[in-house]
Design goal:
8-stranded parallel sheet, 4-stranded antiparallel sheet, about 15% strand, globular
Amino acid sequence: MGNLVHRLAPRFDRGRRGGLSPDLTVKVGSVELPSPVMTAAGTAGHGAELGAYFDLASIGAVVVKSLAPFVSEGNPPLRVHATPAGMINSVGLQGPGLEAWIDDELPELEATGARIVVSIWGRSVDDYRKAAERLADVGPQVVAVEVNISCPNTEAGNELFAHSPEATRAVISATAGCERPRWAKLSPNIGPGIVDIAGAAYDAGAEAVTLINTFFGLSIDPVTGQPRLGGVRGGVSGPAIRPMAVRAVADVHAAFPDQPIIGVGGIASAEDVVEMMRAGAAAVQIGTATLADPEICGRISRELNNWCAKNRVPRITSLVGSAQLTP
Protein backbone atom coordinates (compact mmCIF):
# COMPACT_ATOMS: atom_id res chain seq x y z
CA MET A 1 0.00 0.00 0.00
CA GLY A 2 2.76 2.44 0.96
CA ASN A 3 4.67 1.96 -2.28
CA LEU A 4 1.51 2.51 -4.30
CA VAL A 5 0.73 5.78 -2.53
CA HIS A 6 4.31 7.05 -3.01
CA ARG A 7 4.21 6.23 -6.74
CA LEU A 8 0.96 8.13 -7.19
CA ALA A 9 1.65 10.99 -4.78
CA PRO A 10 3.36 13.39 -7.24
CA ARG A 11 0.44 13.15 -9.65
CA PHE A 12 -1.95 13.71 -6.75
CA ASP A 13 -0.03 16.80 -5.59
CA ARG A 14 -0.21 18.36 -9.05
CA GLY A 15 -3.94 17.67 -9.04
CA ARG A 16 -4.38 19.38 -5.69
CA ARG A 17 -2.51 22.46 -6.86
CA GLY A 18 -4.73 22.46 -9.93
CA GLY A 19 -7.84 22.31 -7.78
CA LEU A 20 -8.62 18.62 -8.34
CA SER A 21 -10.00 16.33 -5.64
CA PRO A 22 -9.21 12.71 -4.87
CA ASP A 23 -11.03 10.27 -7.13
CA LEU A 24 -13.80 8.56 -5.14
CA THR A 25 -15.16 6.63 -8.13
CA VAL A 26 -15.58 2.91 -7.51
CA LYS A 27 -16.85 -0.07 -9.48
CA VAL A 28 -19.00 -2.83 -8.07
CA GLY A 29 -18.77 -5.38 -10.81
CA SER A 30 -20.13 -3.66 -13.90
CA VAL A 31 -21.72 -0.80 -11.90
CA GLU A 32 -19.71 2.42 -11.65
CA LEU A 33 -20.51 4.74 -8.75
CA PRO A 34 -19.18 8.27 -8.07
CA SER A 35 -18.71 7.45 -4.37
CA PRO A 36 -18.38 4.21 -2.41
CA VAL A 37 -21.11 5.35 0.01
CA MET A 38 -24.65 4.01 -0.34
CA THR A 39 -27.66 3.76 1.93
CA ALA A 40 -28.53 0.33 3.32
CA ALA A 41 -31.87 -1.31 2.62
CA GLY A 42 -34.41 -0.83 5.36
CA THR A 43 -33.00 2.43 6.72
CA ALA A 44 -33.61 4.93 3.91
CA GLY A 45 -37.29 4.34 3.21
CA HIS A 46 -38.82 3.19 -0.05
CA GLY A 47 -38.37 6.42 -1.97
CA ALA A 48 -36.85 9.88 -1.83
CA GLU A 49 -37.36 10.49 1.91
CA LEU A 50 -33.70 11.30 2.57
CA GLY A 51 -33.71 13.87 -0.23
CA ALA A 52 -34.86 16.41 2.33
CA TYR A 53 -31.45 16.13 4.03
CA PHE A 54 -28.87 15.83 1.22
CA ASP A 55 -28.54 15.48 -2.55
CA LEU A 56 -29.29 11.82 -3.23
CA ALA A 57 -27.39 11.99 -6.50
CA SER A 58 -24.21 12.95 -4.62
CA ILE A 59 -23.70 9.52 -3.05
CA GLY A 60 -23.00 6.22 -4.75
CA ALA A 61 -26.56 4.93 -4.76
CA VAL A 62 -29.80 4.79 -2.80
CA VAL A 63 -30.68 1.23 -1.79
CA VAL A 64 -34.41 1.12 -1.08
CA LYS A 65 -36.18 -0.87 1.62
CA SER A 66 -36.67 -4.50 0.55
CA LEU A 67 -39.71 -5.10 -1.65
CA ALA A 68 -41.66 -8.26 -2.39
CA PRO A 69 -44.08 -9.00 -5.24
CA PHE A 70 -46.87 -8.71 -2.66
CA VAL A 71 -47.95 -6.35 0.13
CA SER A 72 -46.33 -7.15 3.48
CA GLU A 73 -47.78 -5.92 6.77
CA GLY A 74 -44.62 -6.60 8.75
CA ASN A 75 -44.39 -7.61 12.39
CA PRO A 76 -46.47 -6.29 15.31
CA PRO A 77 -45.11 -3.48 17.52
CA LEU A 78 -42.86 -2.79 19.23
CA ARG A 79 -40.45 -3.04 16.31
CA VAL A 80 -37.26 -1.30 17.45
CA HIS A 81 -35.34 -1.21 20.73
CA ALA A 82 -32.02 0.44 21.55
CA THR A 83 -29.09 -1.76 22.51
CA PRO A 84 -25.56 -0.83 23.64
CA ALA A 85 -23.92 0.69 20.53
CA GLY A 86 -26.83 -0.09 18.25
CA MET A 87 -30.34 -1.44 18.10
CA ILE A 88 -32.42 -4.58 17.70
CA ASN A 89 -35.35 -4.52 15.29
CA SER A 90 -38.18 -6.73 14.19
CA VAL A 91 -39.83 -4.65 11.49
CA GLY A 92 -40.57 -7.70 9.40
CA LEU A 93 -40.02 -6.29 5.90
CA GLN A 94 -43.20 -4.24 5.83
CA GLY A 95 -43.77 -2.87 2.35
CA PRO A 96 -46.36 -1.79 -0.24
CA GLY A 97 -45.38 -4.43 -2.77
CA LEU A 98 -43.27 -3.96 -5.85
CA GLU A 99 -46.10 -2.92 -8.16
CA ALA A 100 -47.26 -0.08 -5.92
CA TRP A 101 -43.66 1.03 -5.38
CA ILE A 102 -43.04 1.30 -9.11
CA ASP A 103 -46.17 3.42 -9.53
CA ASP A 104 -45.98 5.58 -6.40
CA GLU A 105 -42.37 5.87 -5.22
CA LEU A 106 -40.01 5.23 -8.10
CA PRO A 107 -40.88 8.34 -10.19
CA GLU A 108 -40.05 10.75 -7.33
CA LEU A 109 -36.85 8.91 -6.56
CA GLU A 110 -35.80 8.96 -10.22
CA ALA A 111 -36.45 12.72 -10.30
CA THR A 112 -33.67 13.26 -7.75
CA GLY A 113 -31.09 11.93 -10.21
CA ALA A 114 -30.02 9.23 -7.76
CA ARG A 115 -28.66 5.89 -8.84
CA ILE A 116 -31.11 3.33 -7.44
CA VAL A 117 -30.57 -0.18 -6.15
CA VAL A 118 -33.77 -2.14 -5.56
CA SER A 119 -33.67 -4.66 -2.74
CA ILE A 120 -36.05 -7.59 -3.24
CA TRP A 121 -37.21 -10.42 -1.01
CA GLY A 122 -39.71 -13.24 -1.01
CA ARG A 123 -40.97 -16.27 0.85
CA SER A 124 -40.20 -18.63 -2.01
CA VAL A 125 -37.87 -18.89 -4.97
CA ASP A 126 -40.82 -18.08 -7.22
CA ASP A 127 -41.47 -14.86 -5.28
CA TYR A 128 -37.91 -13.74 -6.03
CA ARG A 129 -38.36 -14.68 -9.67
CA LYS A 130 -41.55 -12.61 -9.96
CA ALA A 131 -39.96 -9.59 -8.27
CA ALA A 132 -36.89 -9.73 -10.50
CA GLU A 133 -38.85 -10.08 -13.73
CA ARG A 134 -41.05 -7.11 -12.83
CA LEU A 135 -37.92 -4.94 -12.61
CA ALA A 136 -36.78 -5.75 -16.14
CA ASP A 137 -38.78 -2.84 -17.57
CA VAL A 138 -37.94 -0.06 -15.11
CA GLY A 139 -35.71 2.83 -16.11
CA PRO A 140 -31.91 2.90 -16.34
CA GLN A 141 -31.49 4.71 -13.01
CA VAL A 142 -32.13 1.35 -11.37
CA VAL A 143 -28.52 0.25 -11.70
CA ALA A 144 -28.66 -3.01 -9.73
CA VAL A 145 -30.89 -5.37 -7.79
CA GLU A 146 -29.90 -6.46 -4.30
CA VAL A 147 -31.31 -9.90 -3.54
CA ASN A 148 -32.02 -9.98 0.19
CA ILE A 149 -31.84 -13.63 1.19
CA SER A 150 -30.81 -12.96 4.77
CA CYS A 151 -33.38 -11.02 6.77
CA PRO A 152 -34.09 -12.76 10.09
CA ASN A 153 -37.41 -10.97 10.66
CA THR A 154 -39.70 -13.20 8.59
CA GLU A 155 -41.94 -16.19 9.14
CA ALA A 156 -38.99 -18.43 8.29
CA GLY A 157 -37.10 -17.22 11.37
CA ASN A 158 -33.63 -18.70 11.23
CA GLU A 159 -34.35 -20.78 8.12
CA LEU A 160 -32.80 -18.28 5.74
CA PHE A 161 -32.06 -18.88 2.08
CA ALA A 162 -28.60 -17.50 2.82
CA HIS A 163 -27.87 -20.38 5.21
CA SER A 164 -27.77 -22.93 2.40
CA PRO A 165 -25.49 -22.91 -0.67
CA GLU A 166 -28.17 -24.77 -2.64
CA ALA A 167 -30.94 -22.32 -1.69
CA THR A 168 -28.63 -19.38 -2.39
CA ARG A 169 -27.88 -20.72 -5.86
CA ALA A 170 -31.56 -21.31 -6.54
CA VAL A 171 -32.62 -17.78 -5.60
CA ILE A 172 -29.77 -15.99 -7.39
CA SER A 173 -30.32 -18.08 -10.51
CA ALA A 174 -34.04 -17.33 -10.40
CA THR A 175 -33.48 -13.56 -10.35
CA ALA A 176 -31.65 -13.28 -13.68
CA GLY A 177 -34.85 -11.95 -15.23
CA CYS A 178 -34.24 -8.49 -13.75
CA GLU A 179 -31.68 -8.01 -16.56
CA ARG A 180 -29.48 -6.01 -14.21
CA PRO A 181 -26.47 -6.75 -12.04
CA ARG A 182 -27.46 -8.66 -8.92
CA TRP A 183 -25.94 -8.31 -5.46
CA ALA A 184 -26.63 -11.06 -2.91
CA LYS A 185 -27.15 -9.81 0.64
CA LEU A 186 -25.86 -12.47 3.02
CA SER A 187 -26.31 -13.41 6.66
CA PRO A 188 -23.57 -13.40 9.32
CA ASN A 189 -25.46 -15.95 11.37
CA ILE A 190 -23.85 -18.88 9.60
CA GLY A 191 -20.41 -17.96 10.90
CA PRO A 192 -17.39 -19.03 8.79
CA GLY A 193 -19.81 -20.73 6.41
CA ILE A 194 -20.49 -17.31 4.90
CA VAL A 195 -17.47 -17.88 2.64
CA ASP A 196 -19.12 -20.92 1.05
CA ILE A 197 -22.42 -19.04 0.72
CA ALA A 198 -20.63 -16.16 -1.02
CA GLY A 199 -19.04 -18.64 -3.42
CA ALA A 200 -22.45 -20.10 -4.21
CA ALA A 201 -23.85 -16.62 -4.88
CA TYR A 202 -21.00 -15.72 -7.22
CA ASP A 203 -21.31 -19.06 -9.02
CA ALA A 204 -25.03 -18.47 -9.57
CA GLY A 205 -24.51 -15.09 -11.21
CA ALA A 206 -24.28 -12.49 -8.46
CA GLU A 207 -21.87 -9.73 -9.44
CA ALA A 208 -21.29 -8.87 -5.79
CA VAL A 209 -22.19 -9.92 -2.28
CA THR A 210 -23.37 -7.52 0.42
CA LEU A 211 -21.84 -8.33 3.82
CA ILE A 212 -23.55 -8.35 6.27
CA ASN A 213 -27.17 -8.33 7.37
CA THR A 214 -28.11 -8.23 11.06
CA PHE A 215 -27.24 -10.77 13.76
CA PHE A 216 -29.94 -12.84 15.44
CA GLY A 217 -30.81 -11.29 18.78
CA LEU A 218 -33.30 -11.23 21.64
CA SER A 219 -34.08 -8.52 24.18
CA ILE A 220 -36.14 -9.23 27.32
CA ASP A 221 -37.63 -6.73 29.75
CA PRO A 222 -36.15 -7.65 33.17
CA VAL A 223 -39.24 -6.44 35.05
CA THR A 224 -42.00 -8.12 33.04
CA GLY A 225 -40.00 -10.99 31.59
CA GLN A 226 -41.58 -10.27 28.23
CA PRO A 227 -39.74 -9.81 24.95
CA ARG A 228 -39.29 -6.15 24.14
CA LEU A 229 -40.15 -6.69 20.45
CA GLY A 230 -43.54 -7.66 19.07
CA GLY A 231 -41.84 -10.14 16.79
CA VAL A 232 -40.04 -11.58 19.84
CA ARG A 233 -36.63 -12.13 18.20
CA GLY A 234 -34.96 -9.56 15.97
CA GLY A 235 -31.84 -8.45 14.18
CA VAL A 236 -29.02 -6.59 15.93
CA SER A 237 -27.24 -3.78 14.06
CA GLY A 238 -25.11 -0.72 14.72
CA PRO A 239 -21.48 -0.03 15.70
CA ALA A 240 -21.34 -3.07 17.99
CA ILE A 241 -21.40 -5.42 14.99
CA ARG A 242 -18.81 -3.57 12.86
CA PRO A 243 -15.81 -5.76 13.83
CA MET A 244 -17.78 -8.86 12.83
CA ALA A 245 -18.78 -7.25 9.55
CA VAL A 246 -15.16 -6.31 8.84
CA ARG A 247 -14.12 -9.90 9.60
CA ALA A 248 -16.73 -11.29 7.18
CA VAL A 249 -15.59 -8.93 4.44
CA ALA A 250 -11.94 -9.83 4.99
CA ASP A 251 -12.66 -13.57 4.97
CA VAL A 252 -14.68 -13.47 1.77
CA HIS A 253 -12.15 -11.16 0.10
CA ALA A 254 -9.35 -13.58 1.00
CA ALA A 255 -11.28 -16.43 -0.61
CA PHE A 256 -12.43 -14.46 -3.67
CA PRO A 257 -9.98 -11.57 -4.11
CA ASP A 258 -11.24 -10.66 -7.59
CA GLN A 259 -14.94 -10.56 -6.69
CA PRO A 260 -16.70 -7.38 -5.51
CA ILE A 261 -17.95 -7.05 -1.95
CA ILE A 262 -20.19 -4.36 -0.46
CA GLY A 263 -19.47 -3.85 3.25
CA VAL A 264 -22.23 -2.94 5.67
CA GLY A 265 -22.51 -3.07 9.44
CA GLY A 266 -22.00 -0.30 11.97
CA ILE A 267 -20.43 2.28 9.67
CA ALA A 268 -20.73 5.80 11.10
CA SER A 269 -17.65 7.73 9.88
CA ALA A 270 -15.25 8.16 6.99
CA GLU A 271 -12.69 6.13 8.95
CA ASP A 272 -15.18 3.28 9.23
CA VAL A 273 -15.58 3.32 5.44
CA VAL A 274 -11.81 3.16 4.98
CA GLU A 275 -11.55 0.26 7.42
CA MET A 276 -14.18 -1.69 5.50
CA MET A 277 -12.50 -0.98 2.18
CA ARG A 278 -9.08 -2.01 3.49
CA ALA A 279 -10.71 -5.31 4.53
CA GLY A 280 -11.76 -5.85 0.92
CA ALA A 281 -15.01 -3.95 0.28
CA ALA A 282 -15.34 -2.19 -3.07
CA ALA A 283 -18.15 -0.02 -1.65
CA VAL A 284 -20.17 0.32 1.55
CA GLN A 285 -23.68 0.87 2.83
CA ILE A 286 -24.72 2.92 5.87
CA GLY A 287 -27.78 1.77 7.76
CA THR A 288 -28.46 2.18 11.47
CA ALA A 289 -26.52 5.45 11.67
CA THR A 290 -28.96 6.96 9.17
CA LEU A 291 -31.83 6.48 11.59
CA ALA A 292 -30.06 8.70 14.13
CA ASP A 293 -28.71 11.18 11.58
CA PRO A 294 -30.47 11.26 8.19
CA GLU A 295 -27.71 13.50 6.74
CA ILE A 296 -24.92 11.04 7.47
CA CYS A 297 -24.53 9.41 4.04
CA GLY A 298 -24.02 12.74 2.32
CA ARG A 299 -21.67 13.98 5.02
CA ILE A 300 -19.51 10.86 5.09
CA SER A 301 -19.21 10.92 1.31
CA ARG A 302 -17.84 14.47 1.59
CA GLU A 303 -15.59 13.58 4.52
CA LEU A 304 -14.04 10.75 2.53
CA ASN A 305 -12.76 13.36 0.09
CA ASN A 306 -11.03 15.18 2.94
CA TRP A 307 -9.67 11.95 4.42
CA CYS A 308 -8.12 10.91 1.11
CA ALA A 309 -6.58 14.35 0.59
CA LYS A 310 -5.14 14.42 4.12
CA ASN A 311 -3.69 10.91 3.79
CA ARG A 312 -2.41 11.37 0.23
CA VAL A 313 -4.69 8.77 -1.33
CA PRO A 314 -5.46 10.01 -4.86
CA ARG A 315 -7.77 7.14 -5.78
CA ILE A 316 -9.95 5.52 -3.16
CA THR A 317 -9.91 2.21 -5.04
CA SER A 318 -6.26 1.80 -4.01
CA LEU A 319 -7.51 1.08 -0.48
CA VAL A 320 -9.49 -2.03 -1.41
CA GLY A 321 -7.97 -5.09 0.24
CA SER A 322 -4.90 -3.14 1.42
CA ALA A 323 -5.02 -4.29 5.05
CA GLN A 324 -1.89 -6.13 6.18
CA LEU A 325 -3.46 -9.21 7.75
CA THR A 326 -0.49 -11.59 7.73
CA PRO A 327 0.78 -12.11 11.31
